[in-house]
Structures are given as structure tokens and as C-alpha cells.
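Hi R.,

Here's the chain you asked about this morning:
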Amino acid sequence: MALTPGSRLGPYEVTAPIGAGGMGEVYKARDTRLDRIVAIKILPQSFASDRQFRERFDREARTISRLEHPHICALHDVGEHDGTAFLVMQFLEGETLEQRLAKGHLPLEQALLYAIQIADALDKAHRAGIVHRDLKPANVMLTRNGATLLDFGLAKTEAVVRIAEGLSMLPTTPPKITAQGTILGTFQYMAPEQIEGQEADARTDIFAFGVVLHEMVTGKKAFEGKTSASLFGAILRDQPPPLSALQPLAPLALDRTLRRCLAKEPDARWQTTKDLLEELRWIAAERATPSVASQPRRQPIAWAIALLSAIGTAVTLWVALARRPPAAQIITHLDVVAPPTSDPFSFALSPDGRQLAFVATVDGNTRLWIRSFDRSTAQALVGTDGASYPFWSPDSIAVGFFADGKLKRIDATGGAPQVLAPVSGARGGTWNRDGVIVFAPQQAGLFRVPATGGTPVELTHLAPGQGTHRWPQFLPDGRHFVFLSALGQPATHGIYLGSLDGGEPRRLLAGETAAIYTPPGYLLRVLQGVLVAHRFDPDRGIVSNESITVAQPVGMDDGTFHSAFTGSGSALAYRPGGIARRQLVWVDRSGRVLGSLRPPDDAIPAAPELSPDGHRVALNRFVQGNFDVWVIDIASGRATRFTFDAANDQSALWSPDGSRIVFNSSRNGTWDLFDKPANGTRDEEPLLVTQQSKVLADWSPDGRMVLYATQDPKTGSDLWALPLDRRSKAFPVVQTRADEREGQFSPDGRWVAYVSNETGVDEVYVLPFPGPGGKWQVSTAGGADPRWRRDGRELYYVAPDGKLMAVSIQVGSDERALNPGSPVPLFQTKLATGASVNIGFLSRPQYAVAQDGRFLMNVTADDIAVSPISVELNWAAGLGK
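And here is the predicted structure, written out as C-alpha cells:
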């Protein structure tokens, strides 16, 4: 449940989001009774609804609330508001120990101070019978008052570990609370008994404390492994190197203390945190009062001799290193397991190669996540719902992305996203060091906009025969960029070189998939599932046609001409797989599947339209690199290709008598409207050709006009009607500063249902046609894809959570007023989603309504099981071997 500033949970008023993770979302809030700032953690619904978890949680919360200690984050309150369970905690300002260690090890005195404070907090809790069970740097907050322990004992029962690579999205949790794609527990800080599934006690915390202390002093993990299995083996068998080998200034007593913490058997460790605490205090006291005899006074001449000797040694060492041949680069491989997603192509490496942004779905929320490679967990960025196609700022601090028909940016550490510009059906963006973003709307040229926001300016124009420019990427000079030209005539397809300075883009390579540039001088792209590299000189714009295999298999999205890989510097990330297959199925009003029209289809079927007699279906299919309109005979299931142009044809509509089909085509460089007899006895003819792209929405029941959406530079997406008498001109039906699309005539032709984002989110409205009159909002919490029941007494739409909703429709006594009922959910759909489904003004419903009340649904045929994202460092070292 995402909260917005101003939301109330009882007496607590939310002021800002802080962060999110598997254990819930955290917000900054104000206690209106005591006028103090607090932190509120919202528990996931799966946790709050588990009776065993809630009982244990409430019991431990009562105990922890009585723990008064300066280095334990205080728990103020536990509550529930409208079914949402939450914690109210002390608000702390600072950084986590994990964030601090990302900069290197701590000074020895500071490490000892923090260690004493953490041990003191552990001792307090252990005396109260509470074991932390998840002690790690991410659960230690560093403030002006020192180290404070977080998440102390909450939601910690038996330690459950699943061996896998990648993210720790949900730390140690109660039984029965698991999530696909998560790792329970944090590997590097687990004690041997946790790995073996044994009971954890205070000595388990002492082992984790030793691992944390080792990392504070040395800046290195105590135990490491390339896989989770090898890491577990290291924890169970190996000993970390002595502190003296990594930190020569560390006292021998600290090394002995640390080794006793890390004993494999609990009986061999410190048995109480109190004893450990006293030992640490003794070590700190010894360092604070050094012996005078141990610091002999040196004469100035002795210091000078020592300094000259050190300089001579340094010069000799530098010469020796300079003469040594450079060490061979080692290719390092890491698999990042992310939660499931319907968009496996939306991920991007940061320019410094240290972070990965990706789109994933957890608890029904599709958001942008950030994984830093020096951490074991990823962070979901609140406010990025519906995000797609992330791209980084050149300093690796912020991320650009697309959501809700807009280009947005957000800091990688979180915060409120900023809207930069409207964009319909985005197809990628790129950001240069001068603060310029170049992005690609669907079915258009490229546009530029300041990274601070503003009015987009067209940068590239579609040449004759071109259908779209997309997937731009800046080259190192920050002025030139590469992009893909797709759709349109095949002779225009390929990778192009463009410039912010203008001029005609130049084609570098022919092909159907996007490319990216990576140092030390390669263009990477995917050909038939194989990631290949072409040598490329970005200064001269010269590329080799010879390709070098880098990795396989790598996923491809044929519908958007995008591939599942990203590169930055010496790092490369990719994943196999692609878009899930789809299938047309019949569903009744309860959601029960009655049968399928055809077997699962990997040709990306979309936008099904039933013929008036109910015997045929027209839809889009992607075959042999091209979208075309196909017609399926319902009785036999046989699919027949209906359009044959080399450009892309889609979004078909049947005439009310079933004799004609109109559709969109990109053959002229923009989406225009064409008309063709349904029996195919003659070729199609142009119906409407203009400079603006258009997408068909519906055909009036009397057959006299078609409804379509079009893009206007000033007003965005608008609904227009085109009379078919060839004499009358098209006229606007809804034209505002908001975006209107997906118009649907009522069966009697007197009303038009449509989607508008005038409130900031998509909602479904109805207005009289052709007017005049008012309008009525029929959806209440977001909606899209409206369809009428054949008698006009009910209107359907799809809610944001994927449920099919039904609204009763009654006409008022004056017959110009409408009385819509309250939306009623019918069933949860599995409608086709993902990047290859047209969005924005090009969107069409992925279901149709039959005369007998059944629904023909275009659903995802395969369960979404996303493969890991493979990350390789120094990947280019393997080329040519």
C-alpha cells in the first residue's frame, strides 16, 4: 500500500516516503498528538494477514517497546488503520553502516566505538530474552549519537534460507511467508547454525557481530563466494585471514576477540554479549592510554633519514611496478535474481557500473528497483508505479524512466519523482553530461528536453519510408547518439548515427534490433538471440560489419525491437527469455475459462475484434519481422493473413455489416487509416492520410463514421470522428489539454465511452454523441479499455489491478442524462501486458465482448518466471579468445 504525503494512519500524518523493501514501506510522519517526527513502517499484506505472524509480532513488539537503550531504535506504537498494519518507530537521521562501508573501512577508533555501542545494545536485548537474528550493516544506523540498531527482533522467528543467487528481498521471515525471486536472510552475516536450520540464540547474534566488526575494521567481507553454495561452504569451513594481514594497525587482542566471535561451534564463542562487551571496552581503553616506553623520542636527523629511506623505497617500487606487464583482466560473473516481471527488458546499468536499475513486481506493485553491487539487497523506489525503460544520469545519481504517459526522473536513493515531459508510448531515453535528455515517443522521431523538465523539441524527423526512431543512446562526446529506425519500409531499418547539432542521421548498420555503445569501442546488438559486438570508432563514426559473439541466449522483444541487455564501461548485463506467449480464450462472467480459440501463440497477438456475426476475429500478429492484420475463423481456428504491406498494419475494425475492415498502417511514415473489403477481393485504399499519427478506436453502429485518436502537438491525444461519406471533414469529439483515447460507441450510437487522464490518472468517462451535453465518470479508482455490453445497459473496463469491472448504465428521463451505477468487480484477468502491448494513444483493449455475454480475452499463456540478470565485469577481456 503506497501512501502519499498528507495520508493519515490514525493520529499519524505522512509527510514523505523514506524507502521500501520486502519487509514493507517506510515513511516519515508527524505524530499530531505529541507533535513529534516519527518513522512509520507499513507491513506487507501477506504479513499482516498471517495469524501466526501477527501473534508473534504483537508479542515481540510489546517486549521490544520496553527496551529503553540509547543505541536501539525505539518502538513507539503498533497500530492498524483500515486493514493496514503499521509500526511507529523513532525517526533517525544519518546513514546506515552499509552505506558508510561502501566508502571503505572505518578508522580503528571509530570501529571500536561503534562495536561497543552495538554490543551494548545486543546485551540489553539478550538480557530481555530477545535475539536479533538479522544483524548486518544495513540494520545499523549511524547518527550524531553513534550507532543505533534497527529492526530489533521484529518479525524474526525461525531462520529460513533458500539457496539461490542474487537479491535478499525479504530478510529472515516467519514460516509460510515467502515470495518467488527472494532470498530469505542475508548470506554473509549468517551463523553456521542458521545455515543448517538449527535454533538461533544470543550466540548467533555474536557470530553476526563478529562478521560486521571484521568488515568495519578491514572494509572486506569476512566470508565470500562466487555462488551461494560456495559462500555457505566458506561460512561452515573457512576462517577469514588475520586482521594483521588486512589492517596492520589492528591490535592482536582485537584479532583474538574477533576469532572467538567467529567460532563455528556456538559453544566455542563468547557465551554472553556482556563478556564480549567488557573485552571490547578493555581493548579500547588500552589503545587510549599507550605506554610511554613504546613511543621513543626521535631526533630530527633520524626522522629525515627515515623519510629519505621511505622515498627511495617508494621510487624503487614504482619503477618495478611500471616495468611489470599489466595483469590480465579477470572476467567476473554475477547473477542477480529479481522478482517476477511482465517487462523483462526494462533494466539498465549505471554509468559507473556499480548499480543496476530494473523493473519488478512485488505485492502487485510494478516499480523501479535499484540494486547496488556492493549491497546484498535491492531497494524499490516509491512513486515509480508502472515504470518502464529506465536510463541513468551520467553521474549515476538519478534515473530517468517512463510511467503514466510521462517522462520522469528520480534519485537512485529515493525521494519524490519529478515529471519532465509528456510522452506517449515511450521507446527509450538517454541522458548526457550537459543535462540533455533525448527520448523516443512511440511511432515518431526523437525528441530532446532538459533534464530539469520543459517542452520537448523534435530532434530527428522521419524520412520517407521510415516508421519510427527509438532506443537512443549518447556516445562519449555527449553530442552524438545512436538509435534504431524500425517499422516503415525494410530498406530504412537499421542503426543510425545522429547529432544534437542537427543534420541528416547516417545509417551505420542494417538490422531490426537496437544497439548500444560500450568502451573500449564496440556497438552491441542481438542477432537471432545472440549478443554480438561490432568494433566501432565513435569519433569517426566507423563501424565494422564483422560481428564477435559475446553471449547467448539473450532475450528479444520482437514487438518493440528491443533486447534484454545493457552495458556501461567494463560491465555488461543481460538475460535470456522474452515475451510470454499469448492465447485467445473464452471466459464467462465469473472468470471461468470456457475454452480457447487456438493454441498459445508466440506471434504476439493483440487487439482482438469480433466480427458482427461472431464468426471471425481480426487481430494483430507479428510474423517474419512484421506486424499485420490477421483474421481467425472461430469454428476452425484457422488464421489467415489479411494485410501484406512491408510496413506495419494493425488495429483492425469491422464495419457493422461485416463487409469491410479498416486498419492503421505505418507505410507513409506516420500511422494512417486504410480501408479494405473483408473478403480480400481488392487491395486496401487510403481512408485518412495526414501528418499526425492516428489509431482507430471504433466504428459507429450506423456505419456512417469511425472514431479514432490522434496526436496533437498542443493538446496531446484527442478523440476525433471521421465521416465515411468522403465529403464531410473529420471533427473533434473530445479535445482538451489532457489525453483522450480508446473511444467506444454505445450500441445505439448515442454515447461514447473513452479514457482520459485529466485527473492525473486514467479514468473511464461517458459523454453524449455527437453532443452537446455533459460527461460522466464511470470508473472510481482508475480504469482503461472500456467495452459496452451488446444491449448498452452495462459498460466494462479494466481496473489498474487487472480486474474486469462492470458498471450498470441507465439513461435519465430527459434522455441526455446518464445514471451510471457503482463499479462491480467481475473477475481477475490475465490480459496480455508488457512492453510489446501498445500504450498511450495507440492502446486498444485486449478483450472483446460477444453477443451472448462471453468475453474473448487475449491472455498471457505462460506463467511469468523471469530468469536472472547476468552481470559480467571486464566482459571485453574475453573477446577474440
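One quick note: The chain has a mean pLDDT of 82.

Cheers,
M.
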